[in-house]
Design goal:
Elements (H helix, E strand, L loop, with lengths): L7 H16 L5 E4 L2 H8 L11 E4 L4 E6 L3 H5 L8 E5 L8 H6 L8 E2 L4 H12 L3 E4 L15 H5 L2 E4 L2 H5 L5 H24 L6 H20 L13 E7 L20 E10 L2 E2 L5 E4 L4 H20 L6 H14 L11 E3 L6 E5 L12 E4 L2 E4 L3 E4 L2 E5 L4 E3 L11 E2 L3
Parallel strand pairs: 1-6, 3-4, 4-5, 6-7, 11-19
Antiparallel strand pairs: 1-2, 2-3, 8-9, 9-10, 9-11, 12-13, 14-17, 15-16, 17-18
Helix pairs in contact: 8-9, 10-11
Amino acid sequence: MAPTTVPPAEFERRIERVREKLATTDRDTLCLFSATAIEWVSGFHHLQTERPVCLAVTDETVAITVPRLERDRAESDDFPLIERVHGYYDYPGIGDADDAENATPHETYHEHRSRTPEATIRTMLDDLGAERIAADSDGAPGHWGYSGPSLGELAGVDVETVEWVTDWRKTKSAGEIGLLRRSAKWGNLAHRKLAEYAEPGKHELWVAKRASLDASMAMLDTLGERYDSRLRGGFPASCGFLSGPNTALPHGLTENRRLEEGDVLVTGATANVGGYVSELERTMFLGEPSPEDRERFEAMLAAQTTAIEESGPGVACAHVDGAVHDVLADRGFAEHAQHHTGHNIGLEGHERGFIDRGSDEVMQPGHVYTIEPGIYIPGEAGYRHSDTIVVTEEGTEQLTYFPRSLDENVIPVR
């Protein structure tokens, strides 16, 4: 059976990679505050809120500070690489650093209701003997209303901000690519359901939610207990779309609108598999497209085809985006492009590595990109396909596979 999560051995290799990197620097500890970075390194996944979570890795120990509501999960057998758990009750908490210094550190969680998250992080770092820290940010980010001191201020340590994990995440392992491939499979099913349910008179939201629910239940029934949910009530496989004039906005919001014959649809579908997401988007037509629709669609499709064909190992992302611009310019649509060609994707919908003329990035085997050039005619409609590709040693592999041609993206009106 194909795995649906990253195997434990991969997290062990990531921890070792951190330690090897630390050994090449004058830093003795890596601190991570980003939920995505913490998950990628240790496997511990959580909802990032105003309550700081801090993972610390030294050459000997992996420790974490969590709020009370994450205590049970952090201590569970699901995350065996985390050796020490420090905890506080909630943010902002009460107490001060002196209270934290007088607390006794434990190998497992010890709850101090009178302690602040910052004081608890300081206790953890003191316990580890941390003095020179590399961190993804100098203190917890201002998320959901959090406001606190820098890491250097709260712990009295030397801090250097680094982007090691962000850069490492650009290149996916074979296991990660496998999860993305399965995400594409279930996203494709959600998209097929969307095309099946879309018809004049149906509400956008009804079509999207019915398709997402049906695809998700098929996914859950097929995977059974092997499916490791990273969601809080959302759909494991999901899809949605914009319709009519709203498609002229690249990031338009779902409207209170019912479909009409002649509508242009710009769709999106994905599935969450082990925390990883792919991206599939299509321009579709509810009924026969107009001659203007056909011309615009074919220009967009030519630009996307060029981007896929130009991508590969050793290719500059700027070159790919430039080639797309040239195609659109030749067809008279350059002024209607509003964004770059694509971005890396994995644990997050957008990750570092952007297919942009201003980028210095060079595509390498293991990089995974969306290919999504679009054109947008104000007040009329937008046209965009997006496919997820992985760069290989020989070229590229397209992970998403819903048909791309115009005729295959016309939804018959029944």
